[in-house]
Structures are given as structure tokens and as C-alpha cells.
Amino acid sequence: MQPLPSSRRPAVRRARVFSWLALIPLASVLAQGPAPAPDPLEGKWWGTTGSVRERVEVGLDFRRDAAGKLQLYLTQPISSYFAVPTEMEVKREGDRVLVDGLHLALSLKGDQLEGNYPGPNSSASFTRVESLPGDPGVPDFPKGPGPRWQTRLQGQIWATPAVRDGIAYVGTTGGVMNAVQVSDGQLAWTFTAGRPLFGEALATEDALYFVCDNGILFKLDRATGKERWRYELGDGQVPRVLPHPAVFEWDWQGPKPVMAEGVVFVGSGDGSFHAVDAATGERRWRFATGGKVRNGAVIDDSRVIFGSKDHFVYALDRKTGKELWKHETEAPIDGAPLVWGGKVLIGNRGGGLYALSAETGERLWRTFFWGSWVESTPVVAGGVLYIGSSDLRRVSALDPADGRVLWRTDVYGWTFGTPAIVGDRMFAGAAGGSPYFIRHVAGFAALERQTGRILWRWPMPEVPGAHEWGITGSPVISGDTVVVATLEGGLMGFPVG
Predict the structure, then answer these.
(1) In 74-96, which positions are buried (b, 16+ CB within 10 angstroms) versus exposed (e)?
(2) Measured in whole angstroms, how far is the alpha carbon of residue 208 from the centre of its chain?
(3) How far apart are CA 344 and CA 358, in angstroms?
(4) φ, ψ (nearest 5 deg) of residue 110
(5) Could you tell me the pTM of the whole model?
(6) Which residues, listed in sequence order, are joined to residue 445 by a DSSP beta bridge?
(7) Whose CA is closest to 441, among 455, 426, 458, 456?
(8) Measured between alpha carbons, how far is 153 from 486 in angstroms, rounded to an integer?
(9) Sign of CA dihedral 223, 226, 230, 235
(10) What are the angstrom distances between the C-alpha of 287 and each of 35, 115, 247, 331, 366?
(11) Is the dihedral of CA 386, 388, 357, 50 positive or negative?
């Protein structure tokens, strides 16, 4: 359960005017009767909460509003919350303090608050303090080498580029699939699909497969961009609502096709999942879920595994499409899974990263991401799991055996993509956006893989008039170049070194 209202809306900032009391006649004030006695809960509290997988620092500020009701302002640095009004009812039952919307239940004992937040599995302890920390801002990091080249395409780019043999393939909301040379950013060819493209393409030895919002799965000749066949997914009329300051569907991802033994597997916006003959474009089978399937699947031996916005992770027999198991995660899933060490690793919009048994679907562990959606696909290197996030703004390193957090690094914007790892460093893109209740600024950063320390950060300026800008897809390594796509419709090539 995320600690702020699930609408993800910007917090309402109410101006406080203190001088009005001087304008009210004293008799009028006295006629209202005595003010309520101070509650010993009022004031600021600082402490820690969490589990054996991770403990974080949290600040609580209980104040009386103009109507005399207690209000809670939350400071949670891991989530970039600083004095954020929760706008939730604070209940008092003797020494008990309850905020149902935050799953907060504490007991007041002098200058100590003890109990649980957020939820019964997170023990919390707070001490009264005089002040709470504020937003530290973005430090001045070295800017790094900067891009070698930048190529302007048209429309927005939400997807991750697919790179193979020195060519980056990426689609835009302008309805064009582009093939771009990684060496210099020059266009090799373009293909007009006709409707917006949101998902990453699959580049094989001789072909390119991708999904278009006209409900078509395309297969192109990878060398020339010539169409070989098209397959009807059946979701050409399914609506899509992109990120917006006050509309919260945030339906911006697209499914990436995957292939095994001559069969292409891909999801659809109507909730179906398809197996398509790669040579002919003919359907092998179709499976229906209860929600949109907006991201890729993973092949695991005889299984194909994917998530749906109906909250379930599905494992199907990839030969027949028969359901082998499904697991309820209690929130929409729009990230692709990773299978590692017999585990299915997948996040959801309920603030959790899950590890499931690939064989049975049984939950092995779940790590909380402090209210942030988890839309990034994990990657494992050197026995460590690395993953981005959403509102959390962090790149995180975890032990994939038990979900224990090793470190988290703030990259100051939405980190929807998967970090790209090469040697002892990793690269992460971030998107910025405004208005929003958390500050998000766009940039591209290189981090030290073992510690998460930021080595350099290339800032990306705010785009006037836009709600969101920067990088939403994943960086991709191609030789000595890191390729990233921007929401402004650009492709950039940074040096790896």
C-alpha cells in the first residue's frame, strides 16, 4: 500500500494566513469557548521503520488544522517526501494513534511512539524532535563526457531502443520505426507503421518484430525495413491514456515480442497473449487475461511467463498456451519479468518487487519500494539484482536470494528503465516531470556498480509546456557506446568509458 493517496496526484499546498486573528474582536474569540487542550501527540517525530530487508528513516509531524483536527505531514527521505500533507484522518484511541490510509498504528509513551508503519510487517519507532530534514536538492555532480551524437526523430519516444549489429531500432509516437547507426547517429532506414509505437522491438538475425497501436504485430526485414508480414492482435481500438498531471492511468508502455524455436510471443492491449509463427505470421494459439498486457514476457524452458494489469503473473505452456500457474500480486503489472536462479522476479504498481517460484508460482519473497510503482525489469550481474523504480527515484541493488536491499541511489527522476551494466559501472536514465507532488528532474547518470555512487550525471533541462521529459526507456550498450532515447523524440549515443 503506498503511503500517499493512490491517485498519485500532486499535493495541494494550502497558504496559511496568521494575521487574521488580529482582525477578529476579542469577544468573538472568547465566545467560541476555550481551545482544545494540546494533544501530547502534536509536534515532530523522527525514527525508523521497515523489516529485516531494509530499514529507513521517517519523520511525522502532527498539527492542528483550522477546524482543530489533527493532520499528519509526512517526511520520508527515501521517497523524497518532505512535509507532505497526507490528508488522511488521524484517529486517537487512548494512547493509540491510527492512520488507516497509511497502515500506521502506533502507541504513545511519553516522548516515544512505537508500533507499525506501513503495515504489521514493518516495526516503527519514533522519538520527539525539534525539527525534521528538508529536501536537500540535487548536488552538483560532474557532467561526464556528454553525448557523441544526437539524432532528432519525430514524435515522442517512450520505448527502449533495440540494438543489434551496430544499428539501433526505435519507434516513435509519430508512427515511424527508425533504424539508426550507432556509430554516428545517421538514419539507415525508416518504416511508416501508421499509428504510435510504444514498445521495444525484437531484433533477430534477419528480422525486426514490433507492436503498433493500430493493433498490428509487424515483421520487417532488418536490413532494409521492408515489411514481411503483419498479424492482427485485435486491440486497435483499445484506448491509451498517457501520463498527465491529473489523470492517473499512465498507460505508456508497449509489449516487446520475444521468440523461441520459431515462435513469437507477445501481449496485447485487449488482455490477450499470442503465439505467432515467426515464418508465416499465422496464429499458433491465443490466451486471454483480464487486463492489458503492456510489456514483454520471458521464456523459461517450456514456459512463457508474463504479467497483466489484472494483477496476475501467468505461466503458460509455450507449445499449447495452457495455463500452468498464475499468481495474484494485488496490483496492476506493466513491467516485464526476469527469470534467475529458478525465481521469477517482477514488480507491480502496488509498490512491491516479487520473487516467485518459476516452477509453481509460489511467492518466495517481496520487497517493499515505499509506495513507488515498480515498472523496471530487473537485471542480475555478479549475483546482485539491480532495478530502477518510479516515484522512488532510486536505482536499487538487492540480494536476489532473499530481497534484502544492499544499497539505493537517488538519480532524482523517474527511473522506469532497467540499468545497463558494463564492467564495474552501470548507466541509468531518468525522466522529469511537473506539476507533481515529488520533484523529478531528468538526467543520464553513470554509477559505480558495487556501491551505487554516482560518477557523473548529464542533466536534461525541463521542456517548457511539457508534463514529462527525459528518458523513460532503458539505456542499451552497443560496443563502446550507450544508446538512450528521449521523450523529446531524440536518440543519443554516450561513450561507455
Answers:
(1) bbbbbbbbbbbbbebebeeeeee
(2) 27
(3) 5
(4) 65, -120
(5) 0.91
(6) 428, 457
(7) 458
(8) 10
(9) positive
(10) 64, 45, 30, 20, 27
(11) positive
